Automatic annotation (TrEMBL):
Protein known as: Large ribosomal subunit protein bL21
GO molecular function list: rRNA binding; structural constituent of ribosome
Phylogenetic lineage: Bacteria, Pseudomonadati, Bacteroidota, Flavobacteriia, Flavobacteriales
GO CC, alphabetical: cytoplasm; ribonucleoprotein complex; ribosome
Originating species: Flavobacterium franklandianum
Keyword flag RNA-binding: yes
Length: 141
């Protein structure tokens, strides 16, 4: 079982007992966090896609530690001008472990069928309303 979930502005494919490095979270180390923006859920082959998110689905995770990532060097140069700038930074990260994926809402397959039937009726109604096009008359010059 896996899920596509949005954590701190980024999307991750997560499953149970997976360790993930995400952008720094405000929670303390050792606390449990719940993420509600689950976009896709795969439960042993049955895939549920949200529009945009699946209602009632959530991912629970535990904050393991706060740390800094590897150093990233930013180097700017303009050739033949003598312009060089070197800068760098280390990103603040949080390591979390996924404790579980839970779904409490029923699937909305019946709602999709209704919308398809309504759309088909609207298309047929639009075809009936259209008037036939007038034929062009042949002109001679």
């Amino acid at each position: 079982m896996y899920a596509i979930v949005e954590i701190a502005g980024q999307q991750f494919k997560v499953s149970k007992d997976l360790k993930v490095y995400v952008h720094r979270l405000a929670n303390e180390e050792g606390t449990t966090v719940s993420f509600d923006k689950v976009y896709l859920l795969d439960d042993n082959g049955s895939i549920t896609i949200g529009a945009p998110a699946i209602e009632g689905a959530s991912v629970e995770a535990k904050v393991l530690q706060h740390l800094k990532g590897d150093k990233v060097i930013v180097f700017k140069k303009k050739r033949r001008k003598g312009y060089k700038k070197r800068n760098g930074h280390r990103q603040y990260l949080t390591q979390i472990v996924i404790e579980g994926i839970s779904v409490s809402a029923p699937k909305k397959a019946a709602a999709k069928k209704e919308t398809v039937e309504v759309a088909a009726e609207e298309v047929e109604a639009a075809k009936v309303k259209k008037a036939p096009k007038a034929k062009k008359e042949d002109t001679q010059e």
